[in-house]
Design a protein that fits this description.
Blueprint lengths: L3 E6 L2 E11 L4 E9 L8 H11 L7 E8 L5 E9 L2 H7 L2 H6 L8
Antiparallel strand pairs: 1-2, 2-3, 3-5, 4-5
């Protein structure tokens, strides 16, 4: 079980609870908690940027599948796919997920 702490912003961080390697899709599936007490939920783009740096991957290889926040709590459940290469991300990631994440290169 992986235990990592990835800083997103001032007093906002991502706690990695589980890293599961999916060899079929050439990716790591990351489950974690975004801690953001008394702050707004971090954006998918902000999460994507810090995770790409933490895993030393191109940003076009990282996609946030879901961010679920319970009302009144400063913690969100996060599910992220970190692909080995951008080509695998383009092959396997659904179009609506790519659009929610700001496109492959954060331009669209």
């Amino acid at each position: 079980m992986a235990q990592k702490k990835i800083n997103i912003d001032n007093n906002v961080w991502l706690e990695v609870l589980l890293e599961k390697e999916n060899k079929l899709f050439e990716r790591i599936e990351v489950i974690g908690l975004a801690h953001h007490e008394l702050k707004s939920t971090p954006s998918r783009i902000a999460i994507r940027k810090v995770v790409s740096q933490a895993y030393n991957k191109d940003i076009s290889s990282v996609f946030v599948k879901s961010v679920q926040t319970s009302y009144g709590q400063g913690i969100s459940n996060v599910h992220i796919h970190v692909y080995n290469t951008p080509e695998f991300a383009k092959k396997y990631e659904m179009k609506y997920i790519v659009e929610r994440n700001g496109g492959y290169t954060l331009e669209g």
